[in-house]
Specification:
150 residues, alpha+beta, Helix Hairpins, 3-stranded antiparallel beta sheet, 35% helix, elongated
């Protein structure tokens, strides 16, 4: 135990390594506003930590790294993240297939969102519209148009 006194207070360090601190201060010392300035908070880490590793605790993963298919998700995502193949992740097909097979066993947890279905319908309609437009006969040339290059 060590004791230090000064500025209207006494500080005791307790515990074998001094890991506990007890501060006793006079009322006058406590009545004044604190002059202590806290450092600015560190930004919360995102998906990729400063050292380049994956932050499995990131809320952006939506709990995918835990749960019944967490291991398969982490294997597939790690493969993609560290992949040096071109295109990136093309060497991870097997791991993503294993993850999808696992997710298919838990449709109540990994069901498709309604938004996914709507997006697929819109994309399908757009692709069909583009295919229909390319199958349409070309419009006849305008008779009064000058030939190209003149």
């Amino acid at each position: 135990m060590s004791v230090s006194e000064g500025e209207g207070r006494a500080v005791w360090r307790l515990g074998e390594q001094g890991q506990h601190t007890l501060v006793v201060a006079a009322r006058e010392a406590l009545a004044a506003p604190s002059a202590l300035a806290l450092p600015p908070p560190e930004p919360a880490p995102g998906l990729i930590l400063p050292d380049g590793s994956i932050n499995w605790g990131c809320p952006c993963l939506g709990g995918m790294a835990t749960g019944p298919c967490g291991t398969q998700f982490r294997d597939a995502f790690s493969c993609f993240h560290y992949s040096e193949a071109e295109p990136k992740g093309s060497d991870c097909y097997d791991k993503f297939s294993v993850m999808q097979e696992c997710m298919a066993q838990y449709p109540q947890l990994y069901a498709k969102d309604d938004d996914d279905d709507e997006l697929a319908d819109e994309l399908g309609a757009a692709l069909q519209g583009a295919a229909d437009a390319s199958d349409a006969p070309d419009a006849p040339d305008a008779p009064d148009a000058p030939p190209p290059g003149r």
